[in-house]
Structures are given as structure tokens and as C-alpha cells.
Design goal:
Bound molecules: zinc ion
Order of helices and strands: HHH
Shape: globular
Radius of gyration: 12 Å
């Protein structure tokens, strides 16, 4: 029995891989305990240039 409930991105709901989920769970402080697809993981990057800015195009 595998744990499927966390295999979707918390932002877009896209299905993610176990690797992507594990990456987020390994860094709960950055991802706030949620899991994201690779595209949305970049919004939580430590690099400000890649960080998502609300309201910015
Ligand atoms: Zn996503």
C-alpha cells in the first residue's frame, strides 16, 4: 500500500513524482510542509530572482 495522497502539487493540483514529493518533505521549512510540482518548487527557491512575487507579471 503506497501513500498516494501527497502526490499532487499544493498549488496547481498536478500529479508529481515521489522524488518531487520527497524533495519537499525533506525541506519542510521552506515548503511549509506542503508538496509542489517542480515548476512550483522554484517559487520557493532561496534565490530571490526565482521567487514568485504576487501581483507581479
Ligand atoms: Zn504546481
Amino acid at each position: 500500500m503506497s501513500d498516494q495522497e501527497h502526490l499532487t502539487c499544493a498549488l496547481c493540483g498536478e500529479q508529481i513524482t515521489e522524488d518531487e514529493r520527497d524533495f519537499c518533505l525533506a525541506d519542510r521549512e521552506r515548503f511549509k510542509g506542503l508538496v509542489f510540482c517542480f515548476e512550483h518548487q522554484k517559487r520557493f527557491s532561496a534565490c530571490p530572482a526565482l521567487r514568485w512575487q504576487p501581483g507581479r507579471r
